[in-house]
Amino acid sequence: MKTLFIPKITLPENTLPQDIPALFDRLGIGFSPVSCDNWNWSDANPEVSFRIAHASDCVILHFHVSDIQGRAVNAADNGRVWEDACCEFFVSPDCDDNYYNFECNCIGTLLLHGGKKGTDRGNAPAEVYKSVLRWSSLGRETFESRTGATEWDLVEIIPASALFNHTVRHFDGKIMRGNFYKCGDLLPKPHFLSWAPIDLPKPAFHCPEFFGELHFE
Asked: In degrees, to the nearest 5, what angle opens at C-alpha 142 toward C-alphas 139 and 143?
């Protein structure tokens, strides 16, 4: 099983999501690749990496993407963001089939559901969506599918309370399971990449049986 060790950091007071890349640089937080092309789906995969830390009561996640295409049609949370250029973080606090999918397109629009695999997994309450702070280097304006070299950064600051079916007050010393993804179902050339490998016959991200292990400092 793939394993990731997540360092604990101190967030300076009034830190904004757009401050995170420079903060992570100063702290030496390194990137991990999202490069498992489990299904050999595309000949035009982007270069995708992420870095992650926690500050006891929140997880801080920074994706960096270098691509030759893009799409950002969904402007409202709880939309079909996986059809856009989208980065995703799935996490199971109890290392079981009860997990959350934080799916965020390249302009910071979020989809967040939680529940057990194979059930009608519930949508996050409105206040939970508001609590997840987001920033994209592309801004917040929507755009249709386009091609051409592009690089972008996406940051999410996810409070422990965003795991809304659980009572998680802090991440200190926790072991959870999860995976990180990059997709874009309606891009000119769709792709489906993961951090931890997935041994299934066709693209599927909702598969906690293939999550890696996340060790929080």
From this structure: 110
Which tokens belong to 46? Answer: 């982007």
* C-alpha span between 168 and 177 (Å, rounded): 14
pLDDT value of residue 159: 98
Domain count within the chain: 1
**From CA 127, how far away is CA 52, in angstroms rounded?**
23
192 is written with which tokens? 């489906």
CATH code of the domain containing 140:
2.60.40.1190
pLDDT, tens only, 46-76:
999 999 999 999 999 999 999 999 999 999 9
Residue 18 lies in a domain: no
Per the confidence metrics, is the pTM higher than 0.85? yes
**Residue 12: HSE in the Cβ half-sphere, 13 Å Cα cutoff:** 10
